[in-house]
Design brief:
single chain; alpha/beta; 6-stranded parallel β-sheet; 10 helices; 6 strands
Amino acid sequence: MTGRPTRVLLVDDHTLVRAGVRRILDAHAGLRVIGEVPDGNAALEALAAGDVDVVVLDLTMPGRDGFSVLAEIRRRWPGVRVIVLTMHSSGEYVARAVREGAKGYLLKDSAVQDLVAAIEAVMEGGEFYSPAVQRSLADALRQESRPPSPLEQLTEREREVLRLVAEGLATKEIAARLFISTRTVESHRANLMRKLDLHSVALLTQFAIREGLVRHS
């Protein structure tokens, strides 16, 4: 890469992961890490405040998740390239990330080998997927005709409510967090139970953990 360094923003809620990724990138003169943030809201603030070329993005984080960040970047900063760096290798995750605008998708255990090459590829207008991810994406494409998964049937707001329910927030707390009424929260929760055929908070929580919306503490 020539000219000014490629400006990279790291988005991951694990300090050690960010430190490891930064060491990889700092070893290359053509790359400059301009910031590290632990969640999706902070990522959007950093993007609004700075000149970013590439975002290296985890998918599972507290607050706004990586898919929501991807959609917002595509809407507000279409020239910013996003490389997903995650532990989720399922075809559903990969396909959804690609649909939301990711130009690269790497597993965390391949970061040392592939991350710099991925950044170079997306900066040249291409895409980059690690071998395991390519296999998952191919599997997902072969299954595109299948009925949508339960998670795919939920709206973005329903996924937000589901995540907050699974994190243990009460109805009033969810309403305050999302700036909606308690009645609207109750309506979303009823819709979740109907769509998922899961008729208790405990079952909704198990589903959210299984689907990677929250981590099991």
